[in-house]
Design brief:
The protein has about 240 residues and is of the alpha/beta class. The protein has helices spanning about 25-35, 70-80, 110-120, 125-130, 130-140, 155-165, 185-200, 210-215, 235-245; strands at about 5-20, 40-55, 60-65, 85-90, 95, 170-175, 205, 220-225, 230-235.
């Protein structure tokens, strides 16, 4: 295996959170309980002993039940979270779509959010102006582009986010379950766009509960269970086992 082609390397990674022993609704209450030493925490490991190497141009699925650590792993790869232990390495530009509303401002219009979200992804104002119509056309939001985002449905937000993230070919495209909120025709359109990017050697990391889309897009899969790797390897074989459990 040529390590020069490795674009994502996750080496013996663990992610730890400190969870409070009771629910605290506001900062004032939190500080009072902390000062009175009434607030206690316990360790929770969202991920443990995770090893993963993804080569340039590969399509990987991350599968598992809710709460298994899939989104946490994506946030590690994106650099949103830092590991408690271990090492994460990435090479190239990353276009993440991992949470509805991330990089958007609900008070701004769709037009304004194209420039805001595009800037978060590293695109300049001139570039976004040149590709503005392409983004709007792909998202199918021409009639709503000057409407505040707070009036968009979750599906409309997902369409806009996907259109911005894929307006150019990123080195690594990361897709969480957000596409599940779109309608059937738009999901098909997104699948076609992702396949085009794969044909151009973009690396894909894809989280979905839809095993048919996983088998269609991905060659390999990582199966997480309670924060640990249960299995990784050829996607079709792992999906077949996963569906029988």
């Amino acid at each position: 295996m040529n390590n020069d082609n490795c674009v994502v390397s996750v080496e013996n990674v663990a992610v730890r959170f400190n969870l409070a022993n009771q629910k605290v609704d506001n900062l004032k209450e939190y500080l009072i309980k902390l000062m009175k030493r009434e607030l206690f925490f316990h360790e929770f490991f969202a991920l443990q002993e995770i090893d993963l190497k993804i080569m340039k141009g590969e399509a990987w699925a991350i599968i598992g039940n809710n709460g298994s650590g899939k989104s946490t792993l994506l946030k590690l790869i994106c650099g949103i979270l830092k590991p408690y232990s271990g090492r994460v390495f990435t090479k190239g530009t990353i276009a993440p779509i991992i949470e509805l509303g991330a990089g958007f401002n609900s008070e701004l219009t769709g037009r304004e959010n194209i420039y805001l979200n595009g800037a978060v992804l590293g695109h300049g104002k001139r570039f976004l102006a040149e590709h503005f119509n392409e983004i709007v056309d792909f998202a199918e939001l021409k009639e709503f582009i000057d409407v505040p985002l707070k009036n968009y449905s979750s599906g409309m937000r997902a369409r806009l986010g996907f259109a911005i993230a894929t307006v150019i070919k990123p080195d690594i495209l990361i897709i969480d379950e957000v596409l599940a909120v779109g309608d059937r025709d738009f999901r098909k359109k997104c699948m076609q766009r992702m396949q085009e990017l794969l044909d151009e050697k973009t690396t894909l990391i894809y989280v979905s509960h839809d095993m048919e889309s996983v088998k269609s897009l991905c060659q390999k899969a990582l199966w997480l269970e309670k924060g640990r790797v249960r299995m990784q390897g050829e996607a079709t074989a792992i999906c077949r086992i996963y569906e029988t459990v």
